[in-house]
Write a structure and sequence with these properties.
Elements lengths: L1 H7 L3 H11 L4 H8 L10 H12 L9 H11 L3 H14 L4
């Protein structure tokens, strides 16, 4: 995100929100995209879900934050075991192409 701001002036979350606003997308969706690295910044549970999906995918876009992870889990009503189970299911279903 820092490199994105230095090279583009905005990070990908902000850029996504700008595009979504220009397309008149629902504000809940815009907030979720804009805050998906900092879900505590908005009231949208979708932002927390997107944060958890990035954590689940091991995207390594964020500096790990146990406080933020705990917040996102609480906000979505999920448990870490749920996220881990998804990871196990996905790794069992992945195919080499």
């Amino acid at each position: 995100a820092i490199a994105e701001v230095l090279t583009c002036g905005v990070n990908h979350a902000q850029a996504g929100a700008i595009v979504m606003r220009s397309c008149q997308m629902p504000e809940d969706f815009i907030a979720a995209v804009e805050c998906h690295h900092e879900p505590e910044r908005c009231s949208s549970p979708m932002a927390s879900l997107l944060y958890l999906l990035e954590h689940w995918s091991d995207s390594e876009e964020d500096i790990p934050s146990m406080a933020r992870l705990k917040y996102a889990l609480e906000r979505t009503g999920l448990k870490m075991e749920d996220v881990d189970q998804l990871r196990l299911e996905q790794s069992g279903n992945s195919r080499v192409m």
